[in-house]
């Protein structure tokens, strides 16, 4: 137990010091397993065998293929120009709506992040596209920057989500069911964000220009939407109907995206090399993170730290809602100082025994965790998405971006409360699938 608590404390310190998540977690976990096994009388060979068995549980062929294919899909879609088409179409359709460009940015960022699987990449790319365009149209900097920052977080819930993939592999939960479970919460979050823009513009007409009509063709804008619509239909429709696993859906989407990019002349040898190189680096990073997290889970299981926390909560007689409220507060506080992947790796091994002790549905709990990590992306003082937006719009102060994000943050917390009180919002669609 002493080794377990000491390892947990060291990991928190390393993450606060901004040591890469995979490196910090892997080092603490490996050394912790060796120390704990030695304390129990095992040697290095037995410890190594135990860690290898842990890795085989998560890094099997299907899991590795799924991670690689979804990351490859995101890079292909970006270079093929598919990721930004939802924003382009929404901007045309909403041009007559006050604050229409901000709403289009939220929708476009949600679509981009869903296809790419990365909220941070979305904030970086769309920040360069949407924010300067809105500022040129006399949008208030707070609205322009915060709309992109919060829109990018939608990719954590809308499939395919890298966070759902990691949570599913670590908790041995169906990634396909997690994908489908995130759809309604993602749409609810989107509706809340759009509602904030409408209310903000109605309250203060000066934050957005008067509605205009650029005479852009809505028909042409809608026709340009077919590639992302096809990709999302394959992923969501294929998984929901049961004819495709997440890995199969990702493979088919990669093929479709490659064909579309080549036929439209957007992909060439140089682009494809960049796609392969970036996908390889990202895949190795994510797989290393998953491997480190799994060994860390084994370390906590071996030392009994997670079970002690679960037993303490049960013996104290805490109601389930109280435990969830405490967990939510812990996640939000950690989100202020640690990046989302670090939070996920650090907390899932500890929270899983709690979910088992209280009989919580892992699909529902996974949605709550990802929603909390989504909120962490815009929570001050770290707010990774906010800092990314600040880095690509250097002339706008961080205080102004956070001031805009604060309005959206209140709605996000309200959506979180709805998800906690009404689990059916997350579980209805997965319940229609055969588990």
In a few lines, what is going on in this structure?
The chain is an all-alpha fold and 435 residues long. The chain has helices spanning 2-16, 21-39, 44-58, 61-79, 85-93, 100-116, 119-136, 141-153, 162-171, 175-181, 183-203, 218-223, 226-241, 246-263, 269-303, 305-315, 320-335, 340-358, 362-376, 384-392, 398-421, 424-431.
What does this structure look like?
- The protein is mostly helical and 435 residues long.
- The chain has one domain.
- The protein contains 22 helices and no strands.
- It is globular, with a radius of gyration of 22 Å.
- The two termini are 36 Å apart.
Order of helices and strands: HHHHHHHHHHHHHHHHHHHHHH
CA-to-CA gap between the ends? 36 Å
Number of domains: 1
Proportion of residues in extended strands: under 5%
Query: Which spans of ≥5 residues are poorly predicted at pLDDT below 50?
Result: none
Give the overall form: globular
The count of helical stretches stands at 22
Structural class: mainly alpha
Rg for CA atoms? 22 Å
Give the biggest beta sheet: none
Helix content: over 70%
- The average pLDDT is 83
Number of strands: 0
